[in-house]
Write a structure and sequence with these properties.
The structure is a homodimer.
Chain A lengths: L4 E8 L2 E8 L2 E5 L1 E6 L9 H7 L4 E4 H6 L3 H6 L3 H5 L5 E4 L2 H5 L4 E2 L4 E4 L6 E4 L1 H11 L3 E3 L11 H21 L6 E6 L5 H13 L4 E4 L8 H12 L7 E4 L5 H9 L4 E4 L1 H7 L2 E2 L6 E2 L19 H5 L2 H9 L4 H26 L3 H11 L7
Parallel strand pairs in A: 4-5, 4-14, 5-6, 6-10, 10-11, 11-12, 12-13, 13-14
Antiparallel strand pairs in A: 1-2, 2-3, 7-8, 8-9, 15-16
Helix pairs in contact in A: 1-14, 6-7, 7-8, 8-9, 10-15, 11-14, 13-14, 14-15
């Protein structure tokens, strides 16, 4: 029996609502996972994530295997206890991080240098699985080959094919019964390759499917074409996770196509630069127009930051370099993102998702595609 | 009727327990005020202060008058609402901050350049009172003349005399009925000057008394002599606040002499450098001995950090530069300091304070004076 299952609850066109059951609880979908790269979401604690409304979070195999090392995490009883997060955790495999390190990739695996100390590190599909079994998340991801965009069709296809072969090796290596392993669909922005990758990855029988290699700077319409092609080949009873996607327009467009899960550093990264997510358009709190503003970041927002502080106070902290503002803005942006997914879920259940998405785009000055 | 009063509850030798009533609640004494220089304790929120056990906090007139400006704070309804802190607040007058800015000091007041933009700023005793009335803390402090140590007796005496004349002007200028004004005793480490300053400041009839110009690097025994001389001349029914003192040995030595209140950036500043306060000796969390330690910072500590995290996890955050550790270590160090004051208070009430103080010093490798 699979330790992680996705149960559909409602559909509205291609959009779906459901829930992902894991050994550590449930992620209602559509759902967003905050990113805790090094076993902490930047500037936040696990208690803050609960307060923001997070159900599930993501951490990074690549970073944790190097610092502090998977064995130390295991000595704590695993990642949940290490970071005091009781909910579900997904770890990525490291493929995406390695991709930026000019790795030497062979059929065996990837060899690269640590960002921490320059030492040589090797990561194979089997080792990525083994490390994640030691870390102990609810969901582990296969090691995949990420190809930069744009690349030639040959390069994209070669990466996709190797990802498929690695996926088989990963499945064969995976043993931990209380952990699910998700496959990853690759194929760049080529709909034929995406369809082929999705079809063949689905045939391997994973408990869920990541759609990788997107949100790397490609135009939204090209991403959406790739998503359509991939999702059409994925089984309807398994969860679909668009990796690295976190801008609100992009997520709602993906939900409209049948995607269920997302993760991204964007909400917290923007926060650390003073950029605030808001329904009628994001804004930069450093802007002098907020200097004497006695309203919260978002009127009516239920987050801790909006419940307690004015824009003027937060801008004061920001312009004088006070650390506390990094946390306060991160809380708002995460709450905003998580709440948007809740609203999207409700809209699917109430069969009014397309209007919800169009209204969201319009208020923020985006044009929704048909 | 005075808006701020101190009520004695118990004595043990010269040490005293009591409570300081203010319009925003009570500070049990001996008591420590965390320092929120710019209307935030670095890396923390007001909710964190409550969680740490803080009853009263301090903020800085000098910083707030320059950034964001007292009028903006007043537009929020005052400092309490600005920073969402419901408890009592004391603001210092700016005298100590100005002291480091090479001010031009005349009988009228101090002229100096802003640390923020280099602009010329003037602060007189009357203006310091006026700004604090606009900011709205429960306790305002008079503008004092801080003299560096060591200085000649003439220089120390001249500063002390001017502080006395400024104290009279401050009292005459103060009008806000829901705010107390505290005088400040000066006089360096000269016991005669300290006694004279305390006697004459007491005669002016303030609601409470700061003892300023100490904790600036002087040896502990010289500070203690100065404290003895000052406290002997202060009225027994008024609160005594040793400004800027926050190391645990120093505070307990001052409590033993009849001091009631303290403030210091030390606990949070140490935290931001990875230094952890602990009963058996402070330690640096960066030290490799903690790398695999599965125990909390302090076994048995009830703070949020110790309740949730191991030394190994916190050291991982510290060595990888994660912002969240600044908050987590600050929470522990503040909780430790505030808890120490609670334990000291209990020891006074139970008439075992001297043993408590000696035990504290001994466990941390200090020799308690007689």
């Amino acid at each position: 029996m699979n330790p992680v299952t996705w149960t559909p609850e409602a559909t509205d066109g291609a959009a779906r609502a459901g829930s992902l059951q894991t050994p550590h609880g449930t992620l209602p979908t559509p759902g967003f996972m905050p990113v805790g790269t090094r076993a902490t979401v930047r500037a936040l604690t696990s208690a803050d994530l609960v307060e923001c409304g997070a159900h599930m979070m993501l951490s990074n195999t690549y970073h944790l295997m190097l610092r502090p090392g998977a064995e130390l995490v295991a000595a704590h009883g695993g990642l949940h206890d290490f970071m005091a997060w009781k909910g579900p955790i997904l770890t990525d495999s490291g493929g995406y991080q390695i991709f930026s390190l000019e790795p030497k990739i062979t059929e065996e695996g990837a060899a690269f240098r640590s960002t921490y100390d320059g030492s040589h590190v090797a990561l194979s599909p089997e080792r990525a699985v083994a490390v994640q079994e030691v870390l102990g998340p609810d969901v582990a991801m296969v090691l995949d080959v990420c190809v930069g965009l744009p690349s030639s069709r040959e390069v994209v296809k070669a990466g996709m094919d190797r990802t498929l072969r690695w996926a088989e090796r990963s499945l064969a290596a995976h043993t931990r019964p209380d952990q699910a392993l998700f496959g990853i669909v690759q194929g760049g922005i080529d709909p034929e390759l995406r369809a082929e990758s999705a079809h063949k990855t689905a045939a391997l029988g994973f408990a869920g499917f990541g759609i990788g290699g997107l949100s790397v700077g490609e135009p939204a319409n090209e991403r959406n074409v790739a998503l359509d092609a991939a999702i059409a080949e994925l089984p309807p009873n398994k969860v679909r996770y668009v990796m690295g996607l976190g801008d609100t327009e992009g997520m709602l467009d993906a939900v409209a196509r049948g995607a269920d899960m997302f993760d991204c550093v964007l909400p917290t990264r923007l926060a650390r630069h003073g950029k605030v997510l808001a329904p009628d358009g994001d804004f930069n709190l450093k802007n002098a127009t907020h200097k004497q503003s006695l309203i919260p970041l978002q009127v009516g927002c239920a987050c801790f930051t909006c419940a307690n502080y004015t824009r003027a106070y937060l801008r004061h902290l920001l312009t004088t370099g006070e650390l506390s503002v990094m946390r306060l803005l991160s809380i708002h942006n995460l709450h905003y993102t998580l709440n948007l997914m809740e609203l999207a879920r409700l809209a699917v259940i109430e069969e009014r998702f397309d209007g919800f998405r169009r209204d969201h785009h319009q208020r923020r000055g985006f044009v929704a595609d048909e």
